[in-house]
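tool_call predict_complex ligand=flavin mononucleotide
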Amino acid sequence: MAQAEPTSNLFDRRDRYEALMDVMRTRMTNRAFAQHDIPNEHFELILEAARHGPSGANCQPWHYIVVRDPEQKAVIGDLFVEEQQTRAKLKMGFPTPNYTGMRTAPGFIVVAADFRFIRAFPVLSDDSAQAKMYEENAERILLQSVAASTMSAHLAAAALGYAVWWVTAIGQARIQTVVKPMLDVPEALSLVDIMCFGPPRKPSYKRWKKQLHQIMNWDRFHPANFMTDEQVDLWIKEARHKVMYKDESKID
Ligand SMILES: Cc1cc2nc3c(=O)[nH]c(=O)nc-3n(C[C@H](O)[C@H](O)[C@H](O)COP(=O)(O)O)c2cc1C
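tool_result ok
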């Protein structure tokens, strides 16, 4: 009779962990793509990964619309370029990325969320402050669920060798009102982000990531990991643009 594998080995599959980490480490954002025909099978492989995402109450409140028509991509891409210009006029001080590369993305998937499913989470149906608190939490549950599924799709695209781009600047009413009817998305759904992917026009670069000890706390929160309000403001002023647009090896 075959010997059962010792349980300790079952939970120490470093080979699988390393294969996964290779994908995790090499998933990198890129904002301009080379022309390339993405086979339909790749879209299916990527969204098959999204399908397995965890979600609150297992309600799977996500829909993915693969956009293949270059004209539709151009319409959506132009809306983001407009958004870029609006932000410049508003003088937000945010280093908004250049969205002209969106229309070049051979892989283009619009992500929709069904917020009606917040009713599937613990909520109260009255006007009380408590009901509001539960509803806010339910919205967070829903968004985290969609993000968990979307991240799986990004990792699958990275595993296939593509550069990825997660675009969330889609909440604006104008973008919703133009894109929803164009893609026949029912009014009840919300467009939450767009996943672009493809071979990068220029090689991707690895952005700065915090060290493990800066995010990991054993047994209690480590005070050294807490930033004061002033430190957060300083980070936004002096570090944000670098971590967004520079290779991690060039961050001082
Ligand atoms: C929730 C979320 C929202 C993001 N929104 C945008 C966005 O609207 N526009 C954009 O150009 N990049 C966006 N990004 C990409 C980030 O800028 C990028 O992930 C970050 O700079 C780290 O780089 P990396 O993905 O190469 O690790 C977003 C990423 C996440 C996870």
